[in-house]
Amino acid sequence: MNQSAIITGGTGGMGLATAAILGRDHRILLADLDDARLADAVDRLGALGVEAEGAVCDITDRESVNAAFARAQTSGRLRAVVHAAGVSPLMGDAEKIVRINALGTVHVTETALSVAAPGSALVNVSSIAGHLLPSFLRPLPAFRWAMSDPTRMVSALTRMATLAPGRGAPGAAYTLSKAFVIWYSQFMAATFGEKDARVLSVSPGSFDTEMGRLETKSGSERMVGLAALKRFGTPEEIAELLAFCASEKPGYLTGTDILCDGGNRAGLTLAGMLSMARGG
């Protein structure tokens, strides 16, 4: 194979399922924090006939991201990146969530842009949570700090999240950070387009993954009850979408977000959106 793909969060359910599809015609580099999980994931892909290797990568550290991208390029042209790494409201405090979900996306996107060439594609994974924040409430001035002062962006979004009532700061941070991923992917499309490359985001709803099951404690089952398809999605279902978006087939698809939520958003009223965004 003369082309490669990076999948961040590659040991998770979505990431690993996406690797199995992209691995049909790409050499895969899985980027994640846990070396043991990486080794297991590489073995599982190898059993499917997928050429893969793992790289320990902290997406909140730009140098760590740069190193993972450099490693991927030793295996051939880096054509596709699926950025699936992230944390949920139950996996840390507000600052940690913003740093991983928002700052991590800036690092991956900027590094992907630096090596982009005609036909390259970056798919950032957001969440239905990013759609639960009405557009008129998006803190665009804070989002725009991503281009000039990402540290200030992290501080601003963290501060906003901590204004949430009760113990709602992590949930607010998650919503803000995933809204940022959608906005930022759209904002960066023109810059990627200058290199004849693409960037977009995909927003999953409730899926049966390790992180998705964890979120049953904070209302994901209630979300499923509001959806048109009253079940959790499977990792394989979202992986088909992620792999397609990252492939060369949808060559005119960029600067947009694709919501894959089983019809969940379609069933939410404004009041319901605000309630879910608050974690209530």
From TrEMBL:
Signal peptide: none
Sequence ranges assigned to domain Ketoreductase in this UniProt record: 3-163
Entry-linked Pfam families: adh_short, adh_short_C2
InterPro entries: KR_dom, NAD(P)-bd_dom_sf, SDR_fam
UniProt KW NADP keyword: no
Molecular function, one GO term: oxidoreductase activity, acting on NAD(P)H, oxygen as acceptor
Keywords, ordered alphabetically: Oxidoreductase
Keyword Cell inner membrane: no
Family as reported in the entry's similarity comment: Belongs to the short-chain dehydrogenases/reductases (SDR) family.
Protein name as annotated: Oxidoreductase
Organism of this sequence: Dietzia lutea
